[in-house]
Amino acid sequence: MVSIAEYYAGKNVLITGATGFMGKVLVEKLLRSCPEVKALYLLVRPKAGQSMQQRVSDMMKCKLFDRVREDNPDFHQKIIPISSELIQPGLAISPEDVERLTACINIVFHCAATIRFDEPLKHALQLNVIATQKLLSLAQQMHHLEAFIHISTAYANCNRRHIDEVIYPPPVEPKKLIESLEWMDDGIVRDITPRLIGTRPNTYTYTKALAEYVVQQEQDKLNIGIIRPSIVGASWQEPFPGWIDNFNGPSGVFIAAGKGILRTMRANNDAVADLIPVDVVINLTLAAGWYTAVHRPKNAVVYNCTTGGINPFHWGEIEHHVMSSFKRNPLEQAFRRPNANITSNYLINQYWILVSHKFPALIYDLFLRLSGQKPQMMRIFNRLHKAIGLLEYFSSQDWEWNSENMTMLMNQLTPEDRKTFNFDVRQLNWPEYIENYCIGTKKYVLNEDMSDIPAARQHLRKLRNIRYTFNTLLVVFIWRVFIARSQMARNIWYFVVSLCFKFLSYFRASSTITN
Ligand SMILES: CCCCCCCCCCCCCCCCCC(=O)SCCNC(=O)CCNC(=O)[C@H](O)C(C)(C)COP(=O)(O)OP(=O)(O)OC[C@H]1O[C@@H](n2cnc3c(N)ncnc32)[C@H](O)[C@@H]1OP(=O)(O)O
Ligand SMILES: NC(=O)C1=CN([C@@H]2O[C@H](COP(=O)(O)OP(=O)(O)OC[C@H]3O[C@@H](n4cnc5c(N)ncnc54)[C@H](OP(=O)(O)O)[C@@H]3O)[C@@H](O)[C@H]2O)C=CC1
Q1: What residue's CA is closest to ligand 2, atom 29?
Q2: Is any ligand 1 atom within 6 A of the Cβ of residue 340?
Q3: Ligand 1 atom 16, closest CA
Q4: Which residue owns the Cα nearest ligand 2 atom 46?
């Protein structure tokens, strides 16, 4: 049987969402580990005043592509950007491009989606469901298509505790929902959204579940694989450890904690933190593309791409390792010393939000106002609270995913492919991974230089001294206020002072006797 790289040799691959976090890693890995691939067609839209060509050429300059650039400086010749806005009719692909794609594409990887948790339902539906339907229609016109790989999420069915590698009945028939939302104005849709999504926490997981069903409907006509990653984090090994380029999911939480801004969050210490490195997901995705095309299974195969059932790690452990990593490798210009704690207790969390978030923010903003600057800390905290409020659902409970198909796929690979497209998470050393993840947020998200670590440590020492001074002044201030106003507090104060004095005299006396 052909190896994975042999299979992709000479193939034309279509990728949506290639400018996103996972899409970029997919493009890089295909170019690096399957160097004989013929061409990668990327569906990209112009954005923020940049043409799609400009966006793709900027993407290829990014550090992620350093290793590919070394191996093959002309790799960009294999990349063919195709202008496409997925929420437009016909995916806004020109008729000439449609003709070109239908004539040559062999494999489709559909990564594009809105992953925002606060996306209005209509928009989430347009992109995650309707665009998927349109892409499936386009795929059916492709004369040489061998596999259609759809990226879903392990949380599409998060309303269940145990999740098998099957497609569950959708919460509503997508066609009916699409028809009804078409005539409703945005206000009505907003009002009925909580009723529609039911026990799911957001429109993202709801529309991803609908998309899976839509994809499954085409299993008689296409060879389909569905990948369900859990919480995708920085790379484990490839192209180098710790690569990450965004604030999504845990990355934003780690950064906020490393900067000393986030001090408390609701999470269950003992719940499994189902993080999965991005390179693992991409290796599995490419292997699933190969398997789907070579074996052509009759029904869509679902791969739960998770770590919890195989090599579990818990939020409490994550907290410990993140904090110790940021103490060893501090971020620049931290607001306070990194010291975040997680708790599953609502009231305790609210207390710490008040004491450790709102109170310091108020003081800092007061300081900024007094020094003639614009206050900003309270605004930052409000945004942070909104973001973590949306994540807490995922950090406060755990799920059990069956990942038999991941094991089955691994067993199908040659020993060589198992190394090149490694998705064996049993080998993942969590403390080392979390350390590299934290360093990755520093280097690649915040663009901080590792050579500035001594200065960052010095800054933390300064913050520690400020804290000691502040606490001392606070104690003195409180006692002064009490002593001035209350006889009882004064008595307590004299009692404590005389106790300390007696203890010191006793200590001095006993040390004189022993001498
Ligand atoms: C040490 C303690 C350890 C404790 C560990 C506990 C960790 C728990 C983590 C649980 C994670 C669970 C994730 C579950 C994932 C499900 C998997 C998936 O399928 S789907 C994949 C997962 N999908 C997601 O994760 C999507 C979640 N994100 C969203 O839905 C939205 O970004 C939003 C609603 C949070 C904010 O919307 P909006 O107000 O419109 O703002 P914008 O979006 O425009 O961004 C504004 C600014 O904020 C920045 N920033 C962004 N996120 C965070 C963050 N988390 N934090 C901090 N900052 C963040 C952002 O970069 C930007 O900065 P700047 O450019 O202005 O400087
Ligand atoms: N990140 C995670 O933790 C997880 C992600 N997933 C799934 O993985 C896939 C990729 O996620 P990720 O890479 O993190 O997401 P990103 O948000 O980083 O990337 C999304 C991609 O979709 C593209 N896109 C969005 N809207 C449109 C549009 N209207 N037209 C054309 N392209 C569009 C974006 O293009 P542009 O650059 O133009 O905005 C971008 O390339 C998604 O399907 C997601 O559901 C699953 C589990 C976890």
Answers
A1: 86
A2: yes
A3: 231
A4: 153
Per-residue pLDDT tens over the stretch 270-313: 999 999 999 999 999 999 999 999 999 999 999 999 999 999 99
Give CA–CA dist 108/13, Å, rounded: 6
- Give the predicted TM-score (pTM) of the model: 0.92
Ligand 2 near 278 CB (within 6 A)? no
**CA 323, CA 338: separation in Å to the nearest integer?**
6
Give tens-digit pLDDT for 224-282. Answer: 999 999 999 999 999 999 999 999 999 999 999 999 999 999 999 999 999 999 999 99
CA 232, distance to chain mean position in Å, is: 5
Phi/psi region, residue 5 (left: phi>0; alpha: psi -120 to 50; beta: rest), is: alpha
Provide the pLDDT confidence category of residue 482 given band limits of 50, 70 and 90.
confident
3-state per-residue secondary structure call for 144-172: CCCEEEEECCHHHHCCCCEECCCCCCCCC
Residue 152 pLDDT greater than 80, yes or no: yes
Beta bridge partners of 148: 108, 224
21 lines ligand 1 (CB under 6 A): no
Ligand 1 nearest atom to the CA of residue 230, by list position: 17
| C-alpha triplet 86, 89, 90: angle, nearest 5° | 75
Structure tokens at 101: 């794609």
Q: What is the pLDDT of residue 493?
A: 78
Q: Whose CA is nearest to atom 34 of ligand 2?
A: 17
**Of all atoms in ligand 1, which is nearest to the CA of residue 315?**
5
For ligand 1, the distance from its centroid to the CA atom of residue 242, given in whole angstroms, is: 18
Probe target for ligand 1 pocket from 305, 388, 391, with the most ligand atoms within 8 Å of CB: 391
| Residue 501 pLDDT grade (very low, low, confident, very high; cuts 50, 70, 90) | confident
Q: Is the CB of 252 under 6 A from ligand 2?
A: no
| Average confidence (pLDDT) over 70-80 | 94
* Pairing mode of beta strands 224-229, 275-277: unpaired
CA-to-CA distance for 406 and 421, rounded, in angstroms?
12
Half-sphere exposure of 232 (CA within 13 A, CB side): 28
Report whether pLDDT(184) > 60: yes
Is the pLDDT at 415 greater than 60? The verdict is yes
- And the tokens for 163? 């999740």
Q: What is the DSSP letter of 271?
A: S
Which ranges of 421-486 does DSSP label H, i.e. alpha helix?
Answer: 430-440, 453-485
Return d(Cα 90, Cα 412) in angstroms, integer.
Answer: 37
The pLDDT of residue 480 is above 80: no
Identify whether the C-beta of residue 445 lies closer than 8 Å to the C-beta of residue 251: yes
